User: Fold this.
Amino acid sequence: MSASEKGWAIFAAAVSVVVLFRMVNVSTRIFLPLIKNGFVQANIIKTGIAANADIISTQQTTVWSGGQPVYTICVKFRTLENKQIEASIMRSLTFEEIERFKPGNGTTIKYDAKNPKRIALYDKPLIL
Assistant:
């Protein structure tokens, strides 16, 4: 192997390491939290306490999931103990849902009784 071939092999190995590091970094910072968030929300939908919430803000992230933009939705609600809580959730939204989840609108959520900042969007209206 000539010196120039060794140089190219070292360069290719270095580029491969950088690309691998970047892929691991992106997957641990973006994709794993989204996957974990999905499992947490599924559990909260089953066992959580329903509440009406006011949407404080919505912010589009740089992530897309299933061809839909992922948004961070911040809401404010009151627990059964009448404590006011502000919490946020990441969720992919269809273009119709983007209009529905604008700041100032209301929505229904479910929250974890042990940790009220853990929430899930609940698409069914509450009957009080």
